[in-house]
C-alpha cells in the first residue's frame, strides 16, 4: 500500500465535473500502527467525525469531488496548521518555528495532548521523528490531495467552491470555548466572511433552516485551518466549513447510526442539488 493510500481516498465525480470540492479531514478511523495512545478507545473515538464521508457521498453524483482522510484526527489533525505544535507533548524542542493556537494550548493542536478533558492521550512524550513521520506520511499527502483538487477546478473553471466537512459533539466540554452549552444542528462558517462570499454562507444556512434545522453562522465555530488555507474569495476560491451536530444522526456514546440518519442524508442530498444548481447557474449571484 502506498503512503497516499494510507492517508486518504478520493471519490471522483460520476458525472461531468463541476467546480465543487468537498473534503472530510476527520471521518477516518484507521489507526496507524505507530499510534500507541494510553487513552481508552472510547475517549479516542470521541474525536471521530463518524460517517461524514457517507453522509456527503451524494455530492459526486452532481459532479463534485470528495476527498476523505483515512487516519484519525487524534493521530494528527489535518485541520490544524503544521506549526500548531504543542511543545509540552514533545521530548525535545521542535526544530522549526512554532505558533501554537488556542486549540494547542487546550491540548488539541496538530497532535493532541488530551483525548478528553483530564484524559491524556499518551503516557509518554513523543519524539520529533514520530511527529515528522505523521506529517510526511499522513498530513501532507492529505492536504496535497485537497489542494490538487481545488487547483484543478480553478484551472478548469476559473473558480471553485470548497466545503470542509465536520461533525461536533452536541454539547461543548471543558476543552472547548463553549463548555456546557448545547450546540445547534449545524454551524456554517467562513471565518467571518474572510474565506468565502458571506452571501453564500448565509444562503447555505437558510437552505438548511428551510429543511427544519437550527443552522447558525460562525458561532460557535468560525472555521478552521482548511478554510483559512484554501479560502481566497478575492480569487474566486471560496471555502466554507459545515459542522453537523452528531446527536441528530448517531448515538454519541456508541457511535451507531440513529433512526434519523437516513433523513439527514436525504436532506443533505436535497441541499446539494440546490447548491449545485445555484453555483452552476449562469446568473449565480454570489460568486
- The top-level CATH class is Alpha Beta
CATH superfamily: Zn-dependent exopeptidases
Shape: globular
- How much helix, percentage-wise, in residues? 25-40%
What is the H/E string?
Answer: HEEHHEHEEHEEHEHEH
The DSSP helix count reads 8
Largest sheet: 7 strands, mixed
What does the secondary structure layout of this molecule look like, with pairings?
Elements: H1 3-7, E1 8-11, E2 20-24, H2 41-45, H3 52-55, E3 65-69, H4 102-105, E4 114-116, E5 119-120, H5 128-157, E6 160-168, E7 186-189, H6 198-210, E8 215-217, H7 225-230, E9 237-245, H8 261-280
Parallel strand pairs: 2-3, 2-6, 6-9, 7-8
Antiparallel strand pairs: 1-3, 4-5, 7-9
InterPro entries: N-FG_amidohydro
Biased composition (Basic and acidic residues): 180-192
Pfam families: FGase (PF05013)
Could you give a quick summary of the protein structure above?
The chain is an alpha/beta fold and 287 residues long.
Describe the fold and architecture:
- This protein has 287 residues and is of the alpha/beta class.
- The protein has a single domain (3-75, 127-280), classed as 3-Layer(aba) Sandwich (Aminopeptidase).
- It has eight helices and nine strands.
- It has helices at 3-7, 41-45, 52-55, 102-105, 128-157, 198-210, 225-230, 261-280; strands spanning 8-11, 20-24, 65-69, 114-116, 119-120, 160-168, 186-189, 215-217, 237-245.
- It starts with a helix and ends in a 7-residue tail after the last helix.
- Residues 180-192 have a biased composition (Basic and acidic residues).
- This is N-formylglutamate amidohydrolase.
- It holds the Pfam family FGase.
